[in-house]
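Materials and Methods. Structural model of ABC transporter ATP-binding protein. The 257-residue sequence of ABC transporter ATP-binding protein from Streptomyces zinciresistens K42 was retrieved and submitted for structure prediction as follows.
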Amino acid sequence: MSAPPLLALHGVCKRYGAVEVLVDIDLEIRAGQVVALLGDNGAGKSTLVKVISGVAPADRGVIEWKGRQVHVRRPGDARELGIATVYQDLALCGNLDVVGNLFLGREIRRYGFLDEMEMERRTQRLLERLTRAVPELRAPVVSLSSGQRQTVAIARSLLGDPRLILLDEPTAALGLQQTTEVMDLVDELRDRGMGVLLISHNMGDVKALADRAAVLRLGRNNGFFDVNTASQEQIIASVTGATENAPRRHTHQEAAW
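The predicted structure was written out as tokens:
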């Protein structure tokens, strides 16, 4: 019998006032797996990320972590489970150096003083785990390339040894070389046995990186795909609405996953 998924959502709903943003959402992410979350603007992708990360708790539905039902009502709940999120804006402070950004708000102190050497040592160790070079740990983040900043943001998310990482458009606005670096980084996370939820509009990235794809349309599930066997046209048709699934999709998901 296979191990339960790291994260499983069943019938998750989210409403803002009279507007139903998410309706009966199902999703599964397993260890060592990259799942792409696709959908047009307004499909509900960002809201679903907020639900999983505890920023905007679900109104209804079940969230399971490693087969056990849990409640994610705030970001701290997600972090305690082992869920980390890297948002598209990265939330880095450009005037701080790499070490300062990694430990902002969770500085290490010794005898009442900042332990700069320990924080620098841990930063170096994290970046070595990611096998990505940042030219100078004490360089202001504003001086780094976009790909290096993405590396810093992902390294910061790994401080708590998460098991699942949510990446919101990690290659948006990156050049070809920087995109390749980030894609290699995602591969490394999967190889380390982590689960990755990849939010992307780039079908090339999805085909290159993801094992599975889940499509949202107008706040509902609209398809689950094995990326290795599904054609790009099939996935795009689901995103655009050329292919519409039935309102309830538990059976379809179980078959696809």
